[in-house]
Design brief:
This protein has 161 residues and is mainly alpha-helical. It has 6 helices and no strands. Helix 1 (3-20) packs parallel to helix 6 and helix 2 (29-47) runs antiparallel to helix 4 (98-115).
Length: 161
């Protein structure tokens, strides 16, 4: 995964949004963290992995991937907000069920939200990346989906979304 490339795309989007909305001097960390958590919940909802009471299948993989990269946008943005950059190329595999992996991401997000420490950002990012692997996404699929959604987000700004 070419993380520097994704951070550059995210920085351009963040700077555009902050400039166009007059937010250049605001601390957006808490709002970005809440947005990340909301996207994480939406992702879990699309996978339906926790819905033991339902027989309805998960959303199509393309929809799940789109939700995943929505979260990735905010995770990259949180790193930029703090001056942290995730650099790992490979993730050690961990055999977890999707529910367990979602909970690991939520726990690490809570920790990072409290500490704002670089090691906690790294741990959160690692767990989120593991979630993508658990859901069956390749780095190529994630990168391509991120780029597509980044273009959509710029178009939405053009349309005063």
């Amino acid at each position: 995964m070419n993380w520097p490339s994704l951070y550059r795309l995210q920085r351009a989007l963040d700077e555009r949004i902050e400039t166009e909305h007059g937010l250049e001097h605001e601390d957006l960390f808490d709002r970005k963290m809440l947005a990340f958590l909301v996207e994480l919940g939406e992702l879990a909802n699309e996978t339906r992995c926790f819905k033991f009471w339902s027989v309805k299948p998960p959303a199509p993989m393309e929809r799940v991937l789109e939700e995943y990269v929505d979260g990735l946008h905010f995770l990259l943005s949180l790193g930029l907000e703090c001056g942290f950059f995730y650099e790992k190329r490979e993730i050690p595999s961990v055999e977890r069920l999707p529910v367990e992996q979602f909970l690991a991401v939520f726990r690490h997000a809570d920790r990072f939200g409290e500490t704002k420490a670089p090691e906690d950002y790294d741990a959160l990012f690692t767990e989120y990346w593991r979630l993508g692997v658990t859901l069956g996404f390749s780095s190529e699929a994630v990168a391509a989906a991120y780029r597509r959604k980044n273009e959509v987000n710029h178009q939405r700004q053009n349309e005063r979304y």
